Amino acid sequence: MSGFAGMQDLETLAREQVRLAALTPDAWRPGAHIVVGAAFVAFARGEQGPGRAGDHAVIGAAATRDTTPLNSVVVDGRAGARYKPGYLAAREGAMLETALRALMDEPVELDVVLVDATGRDHPRRAGLALHIGAVLDLPTIGVTHRPLLATGPEPPDEIGGFSELVLDGEVVGRWLRVRQGVRPLAVHAAWRTDAAVASETVLGLTTVARTPEPLRFARMAAREARAQKAR
Fold first, then answer.
1. Most CB atoms within 10 A, among 26, 76, 104, 131?
2. Rounded Cα distance, 214 and 208, in Å
3. Can you give the pLDDT at residue 107?
4. Has residue 66 got a pLDDT over 60?
5. Domains in the chain, start-ordered, CATH in brackets?
6. 57, 95 in Cβ contact below 8 A?
7. pTM for the predicted model, two decimal places
8. How far apart, in Å, are the Cα atoms of 155 and each of 144, 165, 199?
């Protein structure tokens, strides 16, 4: 059974988010040559945005050793709910879990997982990036284009330049510049990771594009599979 079973009920999900946010699991510190997983949801054309429960999607999951590709999988899925800020887990959680478990069944032993979602930057301090880490029992890092609620100044325009993202006085992530002259990423502390470890890890995984390599490979796999289905 999915760790997100029953989470389509938003009151149930909110209670679980509060519970997860209060936990204090051991902090993760990366070693050398880490194996990184990532997953990305590509909704069918015309089904982006708030959408509806049951929207069709293709979910790609990929693994790399540092930035070298190891494996990828693609699964089909349906959204558990329409999108509502703070409740992304109801819409995408079960789909991402299915894809990442399929990747791990290959088998791939993951050290950390990147998710296109927030972590501590959340009204109840437990966004989808944190939630899925708890479900899979793996450290996680959120990577998004913008914060959900946190704020912080523009980081220096240099590779590795960062500024803290703060929510109610708590550092919940960082703006991170991975390429000079390019918009920064919002990098989120999530399950067993803090803002510093999250940003250092993402910077080390970003080479040819603005998106870190594991997440880029997962996105490519999902979008290519979606395009094939549309033919």
1. 131
2. 12
3. 86
4. yes
5. 34-230 (3.30.2170.10)
6. yes
7. 0.96
8. 15, 10, 13
